[in-house]
Specification:
By secondary structure, the protein is an alpha+beta fold. It has 3 domains: 182 residues, no CATH class; 148 residues, Immunoglobulin-like (Sandwich); 114 residues, Sandwich (Immunoglobulin-like). The chain has 6 helices and 32 strands.
């Protein structure tokens, strides 16, 4: 029986192969044993299959529960027979055990066999799945455990239910003992968001973006253990470093692992590609976070910044393996940022006509904003290369775009031809629609709208009355007389 106990322990090789902590022995109990799953949420459920059972007629004392499971192992162990496979398990756990037998490539073969069992259960509805701790009613043995939880994939797990302590007087083993294993799961979603809580930004603003997820557990036996971020942004350009040697021109990523007082921070860099459609893509290899599965299932926040250049920003992020080509193994998400506008209409005094050519300056607080003209009467914010004055177009309206929520003023600085200047300061507010705390669509941003009237210039009044007329007539007579004298003099000269 002592040897049998050692052989059972061998089957805990899954813990070493997949980086899982396997059996933790508990007290003897009079009831059915249980399997407790650590690090699983209260929403998770688990189903079990018995893989290996005791069989004193076998050389090792153990055998597979069914021929189906035996074949899964044989197919991945180069058609080796059952007892040879079990001996390899024994050796991997304890090379000094006389019943052990070394096998080349054991770890990978064993992991693949367990994956086959996992896939066998994929089509099964988790109707029999229960929350942890899982009651076991089928005696000692090695149990395969599959987890079910929305948004997560659980890696193959196994637990060993063994007999309790032997009664040295009677030689009878105690009741089966409880087992405890650590769940290793992969979150299948990420959350992409911006520092702007209401999703409203402004052109020229450096906006912070971050991705929240969990670092996946990937078995060390996998041949392509990759953790790749691919990010694509429109309406903005990534902030790149300018003075960090080989990383010049790359995006600096701040990666925070954990969310408590023990959280640690690491720096990664992303390579930027300018796409033909005007977007930018950024790729960063975070695979070192998978080393030895040290950080598996810990929360991770990936942060970086980008400069807003358009009136709308779109940002897609995905975490995956390999090159991420069409893969979203670990999830993907999209984030939009929006901007607001101010719209001013210029009227004549009785509002019967809209006036073009009226110039205005826009302020936010004490800052006079700068804009670039896009088309007649339409401007976008341009803090670097823009000009301060904007003009109404042929329709009498001027629209300035690319502004964040807040209060603004607009003051007329140039009157249309033939009209007087109206120096009234107009106040605007860009805000979210009633009941909204976050903009989900552009229509959720309420633009500032107002109008202003100008007075037409009056003609200058005449002065002098009849005196003016007399002086006009006298002037004309003098001109006529002078002309006559000129021609008479010219005629005499010609003679």
């Amino acid at each position: 029986m002592k040897k049998m106990s050692k052989i059972f322990a061998v089957l805990l090789t899954l813990a070493m192969v997949l980086g899982m902590s396997m059996t933790s022995f508990a007290k003897d109990n009079a009831g059915n044993p249980t399997i407790t799953i650590n690090h699983a949420s209260e929403n998770a459920k688990f189903a079990t299959k018995k893989l290996v059972k005791a069989d004193p007629t076998k050389e090792t004392g153990w055998t597979f529960e069914t021929g189906i499971y035996e074949n899964y192992f044989k197919n991945n162990f180069s058609k080796a027979d059952e007892q040879t496979i079990i001996k390899a398990m024994i050796f991997s756990n304890d090379p000094t055990d006389e019943k052990g037998q070394e096998m080349e490539g054991f770890a990978t073969k064993y992991a693949n066999a367990l994956k086959a069992v996992y896939n066998d259960m994929a089509s099964e509805a988790p109707a029999t799945a229960v929350a942890s701790p899982i009651p076991i009613t089928d005696g000692v043995g090695v149990y395969f455990v599959k987890g079910y939880e929305a948004g997560y994939t659980y890696n193959p797990m196994a637990a060993y239910i063994k007999f309790g302590s032997y009664n040295t007087e009677t030689g009878v083993p105690g009741n089966p003992e409880d087992a405890t294993i650590d769940a290793k799961r992969i979150k299948q979603s990420i959350t992409k968001s911006a520092d702007s809580a209401n999703r409203v930004t402004s052109i020229g603003k450096t906006e912070g973006f971050h991705i929240d997820s969990e670092i996946p557990f990937i078995p060390t036996t996998d041949t392509n253990r990759k953790y790749i971020l691919k990010d694509t942004i429109s309406g903005a350009t990534y902030t790149t470093v300018t003075d960090e040697g080989k990383n010049k021109g790359k995006v600096k990523l701040t990666v925070t692992i954990g969310n408590d007082e023990n959280a640690i921070s690491q720096t990664f860099y992303g390579t930027v590609t300018n796409n033909e459609d005007g977007t930018q893509s950024m790729t960063s290899d975070l695979s070192s976070l998978l080393d030895n599965n040290t950080y598996a299932n810990k929360s991770v926040k990936i942060a970086y910044t980008a400069l807003v250049t358009k009136i709308k920003v779109g940002n897609d992020a995905e975490m995956g393996d390999g090159t991420n080509d069409g893969k979203t193994t670990f999830g993907s998400d999209h984030e939009d940022l929006f901007t607001g506008s101010l719209i001013m209409t210029k009227f004549n005094q009785n509002e019967s006509k809209k006036l073009s050519g009226a110039g205005f300056k826009v302020k936010k607080g004490n800052e006079t904003l700068k804009f670039t003209k896009n088309e007649d009467g339409i401007y976008t914010l341009d803090p670097t290369n823009g000009t301060e004055e904007v003009f109404t177009g042929s329709d009498g309206t001027v629209t300035v775009k690319g502004l964040e929520c807040g209060n603004y003023t607009m003051t007329e600085t140039t009157a249309p031809n033939g009209y007087s200047l109206n120096t009234t300061v107009k106040t605007f507010e860009i805000k979210l629609a009633n009941g909204k705390t976050t903009a989900e669509e552009q229509k959720d941003v309420i633009n500032g709208v107002d109008s202003i009237k100008d007075t037409k210039l009056s003609a200058l009044p005449s002065t002098g009355g009849i005196g003016t007329t007399i002086f006009t007539i006298a002037g004309c007579l003098i001109i006529i007389e002078a002309s006559g004298l000129f021609f008479a003099s010219h005629k005499k000269t010609n003679k």
